[in-house]
Amino acid sequence: MSTVLVTGGSGYIGSHTVISLSENGYDVVIVDNLSNSKMEVLNRLEKITGKRFKFYNIDCCDTDALRKVFEENKIDSVIHFAGLKAVGESVKIPLDYYSNNIGSLISVCRLMSEFNVNNIVFSSSATVYGSSEDVPFTEESPLGVCTNPYGWTKWMIEQILRDYAKADPSKKVCLLRYFNPVGAHESGLLGEDPRGIPNNLFPYISKVAGGTLDCLTVFGDDYDTPDGTCLRDYIHVVDLAQGHVKALKFLDKTEDSVSVFNLGTGKGTSVLEALNAFEKACGHEIKHVIGPRRSGDIAVCYASTAKAEEVLGFKAQYGIDEMCSSCWKWQTMNPEGLKD
Ligand code: NAD
Ligand code: UD1
Hints:
Elements: E1 3-7, H1 12-23, E2 27-31, H2 40-49, E3 54-56, H3 63-72, E4 77-80, H4 87-92, H5 94-114, E5 119-125, H6 149-167, E6 172-178, E7 180-182, H7 201-210, E8 216-219, E9 231-232, E10 234-236, H8 237-253, E11 258-263, E12 269-270, H9 271-282, E13 288-291, E14 300-301, H10 306-312, H11 320-333
Parallel strand pairs: 1-2, 1-4, 2-3, 4-5, 5-6, 6-11, 7-10, 8-13, 9-14
Antiparallel strand pairs: 9-12
Helix pairs in contact: 1-2, 1-8, 3-5, 5-6, 7-9, 7-11, 9-11
The structure holds nicotinamide-adenine-dinucleotide and uridine-diphosphate-N-acetylglucosamine.
């Protein structure tokens, strides 16, 4: 059985990926410092999969502590999710973002070299395309100028991994550029559990629908789009998780040292369409007002999915209705998120 080290594995995307890996016959070791997730995720994973995954509460930046994981487990490949991801926060505490996101990646790569682990899948983001509106974004689209330190960490890590693979031909890197991951596990046991007031659309809508927040502000309705609100490529987190399994299988057979794939649906959904779909899922109106544009937002962002389809055999199965209904189930079953 092949063993995958999943850093950040108790987080939102990591935990859903652990389920997909387990369903596909992989053994999983999770490392997470719980800076943005809770131990309860491990219990939920056990309920869903019937397995108790090996878990280390370790900061990936701490190379010596992380070495123990490589010593105690025969790791075959790594999926590196561990990182800080709040765009606004990254503007306020840039050094924390650079040191955590880049430091953890370098530490993981050093240990991969030390223990002859060759394959790594990295969580990148569509944010590396910058503010270009030349959509759909293909993997060949030029990398843009990021608008915040979070985005730059993704941009820089992509470059670090390219250099790492160039220097050591045994290494194989897969950069996955996620578009907008949303939704939750069908059981309602796992989902996105942000601390404090959410910044992103789906967690915010969920909380307004559930009554914890009062009203959604739609950030601008004067964009050059069909209904004036921004279009995004929302992808169900369960589809996204499956994309990681495809990426690992691909790394086993490819000769290429670095491969890049967009993970999206290829479809743009407006803020108002997302809101309407959520109202349908929860069965009642969701209070909202139109506000000013949010600085840094682009009008339209969606993926070309051709390469992921052709090369990885990846195609998202779920649409906006399933994304909303799973979010709503998660919200109603866990109105205050998971307990610490
Ligand atoms: P998340 O915050 O839910 O998960 C990240 C996990 O990493 C958390 O459990 C956190 O505790 C852990 N972590 C952070 N720094 C760590 C460190 N130094 N050592 C050990 N653990 C650490 O976020 P997510 O939404 O699951 O995102 C996972 C990855 O995907 C991140 O790298 C994120 O930047 C990237 N990504 C996310 C999105 C998105 O919209 N959610 C989009 C594009 C890319
Ligand atoms: C945001 C980040 C992006 C990051 C991604 C990860 C910004 C500018 N961009 O993308 O770098 O990779 O999250 O998930 O923060 N909206 C509202 N009202 C709200 C919240 C959002 O109208 O209360 C709108 C936004 O204007 C946007 C859409 O909903 O048009 C989606 O927003 P969000 O979920 O924050 O994602 P992105 O901005 O696409």
